Amino acid sequence: MDSEKQRLSIEAARLYYQSDYSQQQIASLLGVSRPTVSRLLQHAKEKGYVRIDIIDPREDLDILASELKNRYQLDTVQLCYSPLNEYEEIKKHISKKAAEFIHEIVQDGDIIGVTWGTTMHSVALHLQSKPLKGVEVVQLKGGVSHSQVNTYAAEIVNLFAEAFQTIARYLPLPVIFDSIEVKRMVEEDRHIGRIIELGRQANIAAFTVGTVQENALLFRLGYFNEQEKELLGRTGAGDICSRFFNTEGEICSEAINNRTVGIDLSELRKKEKSILIAGGQRKIEAIQAALAGKYANILITDQFTAQTLLR
Questions:
Q1: Cα–Cα distance for residue pair 218/151, rounded to 1 Å
Q2: 20 lies in which domain range?
Q3: What Pfam families would the database entry show (predicted)?
Q4: Paired residues of 39 in beta bridges
């Protein structure tokens, strides 16, 4: 009798847990009643024929977030779970996480500075409306005017402004000028100066990080000559707001940096909330360098990127 009960309970467990049969289907197959199947399944668990492990990725995420926060001396780390270690999949999940976080923290009177790019566009698309008073949204860096790749610069600022029921403040200039003299002259315009100053005053900055790979957008658009591209490729680790830095987070070229329009990286260190939104294996070096430079006090990423950053 015991051996028959053992056989039936194991067979019922296999059909239920491995083959996804219903208890009624199992009852028909084994020639017993449905309540008997229920008792057989319970017997299988009690005897240890079945072990059920529940894996909650959130528990691991909390541990990873705490370790990242301590390792890189961050105020906050927000981790999302990505089912695949693949860039587009990771971007989808971190963008949603970032939008939820930003929605939660923005309050009346905040000034939000944003950058452009596909990650930031994805964040902007996920933002939920939050009626607030006195919020301002400002573009933190200039744009590109002759790219076949959409940077979504204006759309991102618009979407952020719509979410918080305010007006978008654009920075209608190329991100990098050919000469320092022309850039300085343009920045002297009082309207442009007002936008740049608003970016400095922003208490929240949301941005991603770029790479110095050959296919990087600014490399392809002719903003740099061959010597400059070689320099950035050799010494650079990444960029924020189109300002390029090395693995220590230090500016690679003051000459290029002085031609760049937008917020200085040193200003990001002063923000109440400086939010770096980035993930994926191809961005690891750039993220590490940005954290080494202390340009962010909040990191939003995924578990795969977090594990690599900790290694």
A1: 11
A2: 1-47
A3: HTH_23, Sugar-bind
A4: none
Rounded mean pLDDT, 132-160 = 83
Q: Tell me which residue of 263, 265, 302 sits closest to 284, measured CA to CA.
A: 302
Task: With respect to residue 52, please indicate whether it lies within any of the assigned structural domains.
Answer: no
pTM of the full predicted structure?
A: 0.79
Confidence grade of residue 214 (pLDDT, cut at 50, 70, 90): low
For 207, the token pair is 């941005």
Question: How sure is the predictor about 276, in pLDDT bands with cuts at 50, 70 and 90?
Answer: very high
Task: In whole angstroms, give the CA distance from residue 202 to residue 115.
Answer: 13
State mean pLDDT over 89-104.
Answer: 97
Structure tokens at 153: 């610069």
Q: Which of helix, strand or coil describes residue 17? A: helix
**215 vs 118, 211, 220, 278, 288, CA distance in Å?**
15, 9, 6, 18, 20
**Adjacency order of strands within the sheet including 136-139:** 76-80, 298-302, 273-277, 204-207, 111-114, 136-139, 168-169
Please tell me which residue, 1 or 203, carries the higher pLDDT value. Answer: 203
Q: Where are the beta strands (DSSP E) in 38-191?
A: 76-80, 111-114, 136-139, 168-169
Average pLDDT for 230-235:
91
Record the tokens describing residue 73, joined without a space: 């001396």
Residues 169 and 35 in one domain: no
Q: What is each CA distance from 217 to 115, 116, 150, 260, in whole angstroms?
A: 14, 12, 10, 15
